[in-house]
Amino acid sequence: MSLDEQAKRLEIDADFETANEELYRRNLTDGLPVVPPTEERVKAMMTKTDRDPDEVIGVMPPRYGDATVEKIAINAVMAGCKPEYMPVLVAAVAAMCEDKFNLYGINATTHPVAPLLIVNGPIVDDINLNYGYNVFGQGWRSNSTIGRAIRLLLTNVGGGRPGDMDRATHGHPGKFSFCIAENETKSPWESFHVRRGYDSDESTVTVIAAEAPHEVNDHVSEDGGGILTVAADVLATMGHNNAYVTHSEVTVVFGPEHAETISRDSYSVSDVKWFLYDNARNRLGKLKSGGLYGIHDWADRFAAATDDAMIPVVEDPKHVNVLVAGGAGKHSMALPSFGETRSVTKPIARGE
User: Fold this and answer.
1) What is the pLDDT of residues 3-44, one digit of tens each?
2) Exposed/middle/buried for 197, CB within 10 Å: 0-12, 13-18, 19+?
3) Same domain, 152 and 6
4) Does the pLDDT value for residue 338 go beyond 90?
5) 121 — alpha (psi -120 to 50), left (phi > 0) or beta?
6) What domain of life (predicted)?
7) Burial environment of residue 71 by CB neighbours within 10 A (0 to 12, 13 to 18, 19 or more)
8) Considering the domain boundaries, does residue 351 fall inside one?
């Protein structure tokens, strides 16, 4: 495989250890053993898509390599994917390569950010994606290998190798794999993709440039307002980009128990977004004391007259992403974003 428009065939001994050592040497892995992408395996991976192998789904910065269908299949093989996962990967690559997602910044920054994939619709059960217990963790082949394939593509096609074009100071574990599904069966609200304009029987993937999940641990509140107050407090810190950067989004993944309590108290998704917008704020004087103060052009966002003004972490409530995932337990997760990015949702093609 290469970063050229067409993938090149490497003549390597098919022995697992030999192939892996050569791929390590060429910096084509994520540091873990991979499945050698033989011609037969790559062809099998492409049986679930009717797209031409040379079709360019997107151009991946900072290397600006062409993400062809064949290259997506190669990296999917290496990650351990099944052919059934290909439609998700094709849609996710197309989403990440939209300008508003800002893949250049995400794949090259010093910030600890990774593309998070959120999958909705019938394909979730078709390919056995996890949306329940340990949703951000290990244990599901589909979640783990789809997320891993995205990272391999960002490395091998996008050129995001640590210390080279990927300049992340620390990174985070989601840079190995970062893929979940929404727990639509336990959500008291319309599913995430329906709220983005898709039908419930459509399958979609959303990409969000996110930090690692930050826990919202509330075992005490018996009302929705209490839980939302704790969630707002987790979001409102001066140590992440959302406190300063203008074009921000934040995401809250409510556990089913928290979501049930919030909904029981008659909070709609719109109410949740407005509550978090109104309460996840920092005093301007505090923001001026450190963080990213003075680094970005904040003219539109920080036009407040006094240091006592309370500054929201996003410009508008619509930039608070709300969904439900996870198993039982009074826990939720808050995910700050890279900042200069917008999430993108794409339909997953049927019949591929």
Assistant:
1) 345 576 777 766 899 999 999 999 999 999 999 999 999 999
2) exposed
3) yes
4) yes
5) left
6) Archaea
7) buried
8) no
The range of the structural domain enclosing residue 21 comes to 1-210
Structural domain count, the chain: 2
In this structure, the answer to whether residues 122 and 270 fall within a common structural domain is: no
Whole-model pTM over 0.90 = yes
Identify each DSSP E strand in 175-319 by its residue range: 179-181, 204-210, 214-217, 250-254, 281-283, 310-312
> In this structure, are 52 and 155 located in the same domain?
yes
The pLDDT, as a whole number, for residue 337 is 96
Per-residue pLDDT at 1: 37
Q: Do 34 and 137 fall within a single domain?
A: yes
CB neighbours of 173 closer than 8 A, spacing ≥ 6?
212
- What is the CB-side half-sphere exposure of residue 235 using CA atoms within 13 A? 36
Same domain? 157 vs 257: no
Select from 190, 210, 230 the last residue of a domain. 210
- pLDDT tens digits, 244-285: 887 889 999 999 999 999 999 999 999 999 999 999 999 999
The residues, ordered by sequence, that sit 6+ positions from 125 with a Cβ below 8 Å of its Cβ are none
Specify whether 89 is located in the same domain as 190.
yes
**Distance, CA of 300 to CA of 116 (rounded, Å):** 28
